[in-house]
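Protocol step 4 of 6: structure prediction from sequence.
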Amino acid sequence: MSFRWVYAQPEQKERVPMLEQALGVPEKIARLLAIRGIENYDNAKTFFRPTIDLLHDPFIMKDMEQGAERLALAIRKSEKVLVYGDYDVDGTTATSCLYTFLKEFGVDADYYIPHRFKEGYGINPEGIHYAEKIGANLIVSVDCGITAINEAKEIKEKGMELIICDHHTVGDEIPEAVAVLDPKRPDCDYPFDGLSGAGVGFKLIQGTLKRLGLPDSIAYKFLDLVAISIASDIVPIIDENRILMKAGLQMIQSSPRVGVKALMELIKMPAEDITTSKIVFSIGPRINAAGRMGDATTAVKLMIAENYSEAKALAYELESINLKRRDKDSLTMEEALAQIDDDLDIDEISTLVLYKEDWHLGVIGIVASRLVDMFHRPAVMLSNVDGKIKGSARSIKGFNIYDAMKQCEDLLEQFGGHEFAAGLTLQEKNLPEFRRRLNQIAYRGLSGSKFDPELSIDCKLDLEEIDMKFWKLLAQFKPFGPANLRPTFVSEGVEAVGIPTVVGNGHLKMKVKQNGSGVFDTIGFNMHEFLPGVRDGEKFDIAYVLEENFWNGRRTLQMRLKDIHLS
């Protein structure tokens, strides 16, 4: 599948020559910085050197004074504290951070993660009952709670107090609690609202340490977990997240906690090679697997483990759960594709709405994302739970799936989410009309060109511009992630050197040059269909990212192809 290339543009083009001159960098590096919103020398310095001392003061966050004072009091009085989390990676890492922090200060702490299918997301009656049962004085919610209006009232009625640490969108009403920490609160002046749930918990730990008269640097021991949460929750890696991510990666590389170390060793991932993307595609899914299959407590146990033998056993348990999750993924994907082949005309529909009553709720969101990537259309995957249809929706750029659900709310019992992802519940009798109406909304909202997958390009690059100085500057753009993706370049009129081949499972491998440039190694994963075109001797255009390849103890620079436009 080939993409339509869309070139990114700086908001103000005059910044490019200004940055080039002020920083003494090549024009293409200056352009990359301008595209990322870098305005001047000071911005660039912070971007290239995101040091831990640049973190924002936690007390700028609304309610931090009350939250830090209350948690400090719980530590001084050795109160019973329940950390109440969520079942995804962000929720389990946040839970592990707060729980470990409290235990290290001798607090009688416990944690609670709701069961994904029996209880669902957020603070619920079962969790409140558990807090009451263990005699908790204080509940600290992490990665959830901002919508728990009634639950907060119930907690107060039962004589317990509540601190909420969340990062999700705030509704019309704020829950009644000792403190509600959420940088997305309209009345919060915190300078960065893109923190993960674990990031908000980290700020509470920093504030609490200050109120205890201790250096907030003690909180830095949790940076590895915060980095895993940032990468896995797909929050923007800019501003404070960029600082936390870089420091967290350094910690994982040098001194990870035993649970993270055991997991990396199990999957044979060298600590020195850890990156944002390797967390997203290797570590995160394994931590997430427990929650996706129902009970996320195994993930928390791994991250709070104190000895290696315990951590190793838990890592193997998580891997076993993850293998089951993969099997469910594969089977569900096969069945979804079969439905599309048998029942749908892909050229006549604007959305994919698929339903099978026994699909596993923990994997349908993953499959919906894959269908979006494959067909470049909004996809909704639905299953039956206790007589009601529940599901996950994923979308493409240019189509707000949450707004589309809003237009179907008379057919839905529940829905929630954002522009690219949503969850929903409806009765089976409403499914045909929901399918029809959603398709109609998408047909109106998407022109034909929007069904063509796009590839965002940072800039054109001549191969002769790639040298070690360019690479060393480009490497300083790390850590990559949302809002700071690895730059994608286009080089036009390149030609293959030698004979291109297909290796592995359909991967295109070749060497290329451009006019009088040097020769570069390239690899295009699952791009075997381009082999005849690049072998015919004609020049072609390539879209790619630059990266280091580590093989047999040797590091080399290579291009990872993302697309090819043939003559």
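Step 5 (inspection) to follow. The two ends are 16 Å apart (CA to CA).
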